[in-house]
Amino acid sequence: MKIPLRLVGVLSLSGLLNGCVVWVEDLADLKQFVSQARSQPSGRIEPLPEYKPYENFVYHGVSLREPFRALTPLQPEVLEEQPKQVASTLQPDQQREKGYLESFSLDDLNMVGTIRKGGKGQFVALVRDQNGAVHRVVVGDYIGLDYGEVRKIDNDKVELREIVDNGRGGWMRRSRNLVLDTRN
Q: What predicted TM-score, i.e. pTM, was given to this entire model?
């Protein structure tokens, strides 16, 4: 019984495959297209561009002064005095408890408006953090990562004075502004 079942399966499979083949008897349109494509002029291939040969360059500045070396050699006593000059009395108050807006970079804060306190009184700045919350900021508040103290608030900006690392073991003051974001 197994042989006739296999035979039936093979015959039915071959019948299905024969049914999928399409017999095309009229090839006139294909022959016309091929003859039309051959009658058109063939395309011309452009020649490769000519490249200039590589020219070696010899750097003759080896005998010149190094650009990162001082013009005059530093005296040993000058080198000993430098650390004394670096020490400064300016330092941020690191004992002070930091406010919420001091956990954000100034790039992550946007000034979105101002309110005048008491008619002609002092401005209060409205500052939005990166989480979308809006906070009131007055002169004397600290914002930003670099100990930025609010010095002045105008209608369109908040003026800050930051204390930043000067890169030589000391601190220096830097003025920054947080301007009104007019995109909203």
A: 0.51
